[in-house]
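Hi all, long-time lurker, first post. I run a small reading group and we've been trying to get comfortable going from sequence to structure in the token notation. Rather than ask abstract questions, I figured I'd post a concrete chain and ask someone more experienced to write out its structure so we can walk through it together at our next meeting. Sequence below, copied exactly:
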Amino acid sequence: MGRRLGIIAGSGKFPFYFLQEAQNLGYSCVVAGIKGEAENDLENKADVFEWIDIDGIFKLITFFKNQGVNEAVFAGKVDHRKIYKEGKIGKALLGLLAKAKDRSPTAIIEAAIGFLYKQGIEIIEPTKFITSAFCDEGILTRKKPSREENEDISFGWDIARKIADLDIGQTVVVKDKAVVAVEGMEGTDETIKRGGLIAGEGAVVIKVSRTLQDPRIDLPVVGLNTVESLVEAKAGALCFEAQYVPFFQREKAVSLADANRISIVAKKVNKKGSRLNI
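-- Answer (accepted) --
Happy to help. Here is the structure in token form:
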């Protein structure tokens, strides 16, 4: 049995990718799957698995301590909208919300990280486990962005960075040098689809990280699901931040983009003071 690592798993394919990479490095992975978020098949791939409710932080702590876990990562998405849904908030989550400076995802997770640390469980950065998922700068698809798409990328890039630094969202949809949609609580995929409904065919999607991104709290990602949303929205291009936004299921995603004449571009930006090291 290798060194034990806890994984707090939300939705999407990130938990699967992270789990496989950690196991390949010799870790024994103890996975807490968040009910209503994590996929069922994750249970079959983990070394040890337990389902927890979204506000089950005390059950999480007991589970990890019983399994000898003192380091863990967050992997996958949790629908932030649930904090406004009746019946989804128990006393434990209400306690965390009271400790948070506001109800933004960053503030809530920061409060959770602090509470877990006091209980002897340190949340660590996931980036060292997934270095192969980060891309260098360049065009990843056969189709290059058109002149108009490049102009929309240039127009939307700084806007996306400012929105991200304000902790609003990390995705914007642009068409004809106009912002069509900004990511909120609904997440990237729903933002892309909403942008497609408003703008119609040919919109550009931009995904970035924050200037001072703390990957323990939130690591922005793109992947096959992202491209599937681009196809549904009839988008023309995706531009994401090279070396800071991992690209999961890259081969399948690029193949799908090529089949639908969608450009995918990784754009590099130099950041001073960022926590993210890969």
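A couple of things your group might point at:
DSSP finds nine helices and eleven strands in the chain.
The two ends are 27 Å apart (CA to CA).
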